[in-house]
Amino acid sequence: MTAAQDSLRCPGMHDLGPEEMARFRRIEEVFRASCESWGFREIRTPVVEHLHLFTSAGTLSPQMLGRVYSFLDWDGWSGERVVLRPDGTIPAARLYWERYRGEIAKLFYVENLFRFAASGERREVWQCGAELIGESWPAGDLEVIAVVRGVLRRLGFERLTLRLSHTGIIRSILATAGYSPEEQLALYDRLIDGDPSVWPEIAGALPQTGAPLTMLRDLTGGQVHGLANLQSALGPTLPAIVPPIEELRTIASSLELAGCSYELDLTIVRGFEYYTGPVFQVLIDGENVAGGGRYDGLIASQEGHSVPACGFAISIEPLLDRLDNPRPGEEINLIDVSIAGRSPSVLASALGLVTELHEQGYDAELVAQPLFKGRWTIEVSDRDGRAAYRLRDLTAGSSFDAATVNEVTQRIERGARA
Amino acid sequence: VIKLALPGGDIRDQAASLLTSLGLHSEEYADGSRAYRFPLASEEAELRVFREKDIPIQIALGNYDLGICNRVWLDELQARYPQEQVVALRTLGFGAMKVVAAVAPESLRALGPVEDWGEIEGLRIAAEYPNLAEQFALAARFSRYHILPVWGAAGSYPPDDAELAVFADSGTAADRLGLRIIARLASGSACLLANRTSLAQKDLRPLLEPLFTGDQMSSEAGERMLPAFRPTNGTRRTISRQRQPDLRLALPDGHAQRHTYAAFQAAGIEFEGYAEKQAVVRPTSPIPGLQVKVIRPQDMPQQVALGSFDLAVTGRDWLLDHLIAFPSSPVREVADLQRSRYSLCAVVDEAIPGDTLAAALAYWRSHNREVIRIASEYANLADHFARQRHIGRYQIIPVSGASEGFVPEDAEILIEGTETGTSVAANKLKIVDRIFESTNCLIARADPPDGPAGALLRSLVERLQASVAISA
Q: Are B148 and B127 in contact (CB under 8 A)?
């Protein structure tokens, strides 16, 4: 492809060719089967949503909002914008509220999201996501972690790193430091945006703490005992930190007893404001491929009614790069039906044969010239005004002539049984 | 040759004085010539006059290497497009102003402290700087809001037609309008801008050296000042808007004012405070039950669609520009006043061979021009035109004025209204397509008000139609 042709694709947008789509479908199928086996049901939300779903406090961070694709729709004369879906959880929460409120809903989706990024980075990303809405801590939290691990392991990824945190730890520190709710939100957003200068600023506002706040970072990689230590060190002076630490200890201990390895990383805040409880990331070879957590306040921020909820999303693109392509021939079982000549009678006979093959459950395609991609190649010709079929079995290295469609299908069936 | 974009309008005189004092005198620019393009006396640069708003866009597009405009116009562009290739080099020490968000005291009384407005659904923000307004609304975490981009007079919208107004204030504008400033969204003075690529790759010294003499002044964006909005905790309030019993009429200012005044005068209606050349924001109506307000004609279709006005006088050009963008809008033309008549045309450089659009397109293709640039104040109409005429790969350059100067250097096609064609010819352009004829017209919603207001609307329309028929 020339540079000029390449420029026809919009920046940040990517095509998926047949090889990538084969891997994409594999991920999707494993994800779907896993979710269904855990009782989740598939949904699909629209690509275009109202911007206001994403703008309230407790939804997306300002940095994320600065990257959404928003525009005025054809009926947007009121000045209210719509947006290309920048997140999967918020539309799922909207759907829950509109259709399933009051129930426990287990929903999953495979969707594309749109977020502006600097040149070269992806602006359209695909996610496999699941939301467990109405189910409280800790059963829901443990279940979504188990589903994510199950999906990735079924795809063949064994060396997974699970990192755990709890957004309530940082939120309680900010609240204790005497910041107003709006200042807490602003500082939390800076943490989401990865601004490291926030830590000394917060520490400066908490001179009474018995231990340095850097303990949160020092515990990275630690286990459940680290949480107990943190509770001992900070609990007396920051009592608000105790409930989230205890929630996280419950999750961590349960995983440990179930034989699921994990490590702590208490600086994880996830890139969204809506997380309120335990959060997690899953990494493969150091790359973040999945994440999720509890967001009990999200539906409250939309509609004013608090609903317990948690969920996760697996990023498809990093997995696509790690999966092998199917082996040649593995996915090709097509019968070539080619045409000798262009007369309407030959074309009609070839079309009739392909249709019959499909009806009998075979995969077949109509081609101008034999492609020799699968086992069988059939050439249709006209012999004295009647259709004639020449079959070639590339596996056996043999060929046959047939006069009727019935003879053709019988021969293929016999070949398949042989 | 270095290309320098210079401001017309309010800061032109100060910019011209500065250039003269730095030895960069251009007689035509200093004299206020109506030409758009002229060389610098030293012939090292080519100068082009734009509306200030268009200058950062032209520099971002790479059409100009350097430019002078108020810093807030760069902030407005970058609020929406932070990646744009424009660098602010230094301030020039004149034209200080700020962009503010202001509210009417009535709205504060009705809706409570502005810090709690995140709870309110349906806030309307009339904005002369819509990108800064959008950025402000997102930072404030307003849950649901409407940005009403307006071409001018945003400050006259609160409290009845918007809860918030975003406009430029160089000191007293808000006070004069009786509004209270609640936030400063941007501030700055005239500054020197550069295209990033030009700065990196082109020798700009003949202009940069003189422009960098004197005190060096920072080109940083002015600090924003926002209220401390409180998180909402899920609480929601909706604004209750009840229809007023009076009929609300919007009249245009600017070029359309003369024709509108004449149309109403012919129908025997005169408003105190609305004459051929002068207008106040709220003229007094001699007709009981009729309220009148003066806004920009460009903004009327949206305002009527929203129900802020029942009836308005605007040009068919602006009505169609609105309907092309929003086909389901409920605004309709209810009477043709048959004044302010002109043709909306596609014009090109007179040096292009042939007299048709097809000939011009063939010429550009033969000269390997891949992207056809179409400049227009009517961005939606221009887009529609390009699609209808199958122009292929094109780029719409929205402009806010001084549009005849865009062709041929900065655009291939200009979509422009012309009465007699003399201005087109004077600028060495020619018409290759007449798109439609525009006159001023009365517009209303498809569902007009009931009761006395509806009856008054019908009677006003009939009176104006009757006077048109007599004139005809």
A: yes
